[in-house]
């Protein structure tokens, strides 16, 4: 018998209602359905988004539990609140604009049944907003030791794909407010807590990224956030001073190049490589 799992999703006012509907529908259509869908509304929404939530409430019934935060707190703090509200020990993350293939959860639950692991992710196919033009494939290492090594320089998990054990996330301190690096910071702290990771080597989600994602990964503001993150994981002993310095230089250089150059680098270097 398959383990029960909760779905954890956060949505805020700038999301597109049609994307939210498609994303939630993809979880409704899973071969192994959830009995607990936790939707965190990160601040006041708008009528079109509320209409989609009402529509999906009728479809999911009592399985969909909606929590509304009085103000926008940001992804990290919204998910921190959501983790605590999930009923099940296993929690599957889902973004409000991406699409899970029908057997995504089935494949991840199989891993939890076969091996001792705390976080299970997958590879993804990235698209522009229309989901018609593939942007790239983000493959990540499969096994724990390779994931830990990869984490020294890049995020080793595709956040939208992960399914994790609630108790281990809470033991590591849960999500924190680390803008742009909320998930990466959690993985590092879980690694430091001796948690075990695994990535299914299949593309089990369609993710909307494209140029919007590339733009977000550049500029002085992103660079300053990145330095704060790198400094933090150095302070907790995950990076040496040399590793920290190398990351700041390489990732800083990447953040400051023009968007067109960054797009080329994503396609030729950072995607389809582990």
Describe this structure in words.
The chain has two domains: 5-208, Alpha-Beta Complex (Spore Coat Polysaccharide Biosynthesis Protein SpsA, Chain A), CATH 3.90.550.10; 211-274, no CATH class. Helix content is 45%, strand content 19%. The protein is built from eleven helices and nine strands. The protein has helices at 17-28, 47-60, 75-85, 104-114, 144-150, 166-171, 182-192, 210-216, 220-235, 241-256, 259-270; strands at 5-11, 36-41, 64-68, 90-93, 99-100, 119-127, 134-138, 163-165, 197-208. Strands 1, 2, 3, 4, 5, 6, 7, 8 and 9 form a nine-stranded mixed β-sheet that branches. Helix 1 (17-28) packs parallel to helix 2 (47-60) and helix 9 packs antiparallel against helix 10 (241-256). The longest helix is centred in the last third of the chain and has 16 residues, at 220-235.
Chain-wise SSE layout:
Layout: E1 5-11, H1 17-28, E2 36-41, H2 47-60, E3 64-68, H3 75-85, E4 90-93, E5 99-100, H4 104-114, E6 119-127, E7 134-138, H5 144-150, E8 163-165, H6 166-171, H7 182-192, E9 197-208, H8 210-216, H9 220-235, H10 241-256, H11 259-270
Parallel strand pairs: 1-2, 1-4, 2-3, 6-9
Antiparallel strand pairs: 4-8, 5-9, 6-7, 6-8
Helix pairs in contact: 1-2, 9-10
């Amino acid at each position: 018998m398959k383990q029960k799992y909760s779905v954890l999703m956060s949505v805020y006012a700038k999301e597109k209602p049609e994307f939210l509907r498609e994303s939630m529908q993809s979880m409704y259509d899973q071969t192994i359905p959830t009995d607990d869908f936790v939707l965190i509304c990160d601040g006041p929404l708008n009528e079109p988004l509320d209409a989609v939530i009402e529509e999906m409430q009728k479809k999911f019934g009592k399985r969909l539990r909606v929590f509304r935060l009085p103000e926008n707190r940001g992804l990290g703090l919204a998910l921190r609140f959501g983790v605590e509200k999930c009923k099940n020990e296993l929690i599957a993350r889902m973004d409000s604009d991406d699409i899970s293939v029908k057997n995504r959860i089935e494949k991840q639950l199989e891993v939890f049944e076969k091996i001792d692991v705390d976080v299970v992710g997958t590879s993804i196919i990235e698209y522009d907003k229309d989901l018609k033009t593939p942007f790239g494939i983000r493959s990540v290492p499969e096994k724990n030791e390779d994931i830990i090594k990869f984490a020294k320089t890049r995020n080793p998990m595709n956040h939208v794909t992960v399914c994790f054990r609630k108790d281990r996330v809470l033991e590591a301190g849960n999500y924190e407010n680390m803008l742009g690096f909320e998930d990466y910071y959690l993985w590092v702290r879980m690694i430091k807590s001796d948690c075990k990771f695994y990535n299914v080597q299949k593309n089990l989600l369609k993710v909307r990224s494209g140029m919007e994602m590339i733009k977000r990964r550049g500029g002085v503001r992103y660079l300053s956030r990145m330095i704060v993150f790198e400094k933090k994981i150095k302070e907790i002993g995950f990076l040496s001073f040399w590793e920290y310095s190398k990351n700041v230089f390489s990732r800083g250089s990447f953040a400051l190049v023009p968007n067109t150059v960054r797009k080329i680098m994503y396609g030729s270097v950072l995607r389809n490589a582990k």
